[in-house]
Design brief:
The protein has 247 residues and is of the alpha/beta class. The chain contains eight helices and twelve strands.
């Protein structure tokens, strides 16, 4: 994969946001791009976003919306808005696109360097919002992957850093930081397609393995265009409205 990677997550078929993020990271001298899942769901360009993942050779894992669209998990836990988008997405994807999603792994380990998760090591659909959530994952990381000290996760749509040292967990949202070799880390890059941190800007990060440095980036995109597509497609209006709010 290389020593300098861009980490993206939760694109959710928002083509306007995805294109601008790719344009931005294309000027950051990265060796590769990884995606932590949920390429599709919610928004209106699932096929185009899948195609961009193919074109860029992005290493993708499967998110819960990807799994739902290709029938790998039950829909019982999805709210009405998410369910409407999943059903719309199914109708608007080709067999080739569905096969692409169906073949995605739910987890990836890059040697002992880092782990790629959608939700949690314990359950790919589990959220990590708080230190007590992260604690269970750190315990699992030490048990199953004792030589790995870094994991990237998505699913919450909120950038966040949890670090663990001597049974103490710290959390925060730094813009730029260096990894402490004595700590373990769980790091969320935020969401490309539907940020939920009160900012409409798309979010991603770059990890420089040589420098042991993580840098977060925010990228502006045409929110109005993405929102108008939602209305035109007949999807729930709330999906358009939340793009402006960043929540």
């Amino acid at each position: 994969m290389g020593n300098r990677i861009a980490v993206i997550s939760d694109i959710h078929a928002n083509l306007e946001a995805f294109q601008e993020v790719l344009n931005h990271l294309g000027h950051q001298s990265v060796d590769g791009v990884v995606c932590l899942g949920d390429i599709v769901g919610y928004y209106t360009d699932p096929s185009a976003c899948i195609e961009l993942c193919r074109e860029w050779g992005i290493l993708c894992i499967m998110g819960n919306h990807d799994a739902a669209v290709c029938g790998k998990i039950s829909l019982v836990d999805f709210n009405d808005t998410a369910l409407a988008a999943i059903q719309w997405t199914r109708r608007n994807l080709s067999k080739e696109d569905l096969l692409f999603l169906n073949r995605l792994p739910r987890f990836h380990q890059e040697q002992d360097k880092y782990l790629l998760l959608h939700g949690s090591l314990l359950n790919p659909d589990r959220y990590i919002f708080f230190p007590e959530d992260a604690e269970k994952d750190f315990e699992e990381m030490m048990r199953v992957h004792p030589r790995t000290f870094l994991a990237f996760f998505g699913h919450t749509h909120q950038k966040r850093v949890f670090s663990y040292h001597r049974e103490t967990i710290s959390s925060g949202v730094p813009e730029d930081f260096h990894l402490d070799p004595l700590r373990r880390y769980l790091v969320n890059p935020g969401s490309v397609g539907q940020p939920r941190d009160h900012s409409p800007l798309a979010s991603y990060l770059i990890y420089d393995e040589d420098q042991k440095r993580i840098t977060f980036h925010r990228v502006a995109y045409d929110v109005r265009k993405a929102a108008e597509k939602v209305i035109k497609a007949g999807l729930p209006r709330s999906l358009a409205e939340r793009l402006y709010r960043g929540w």
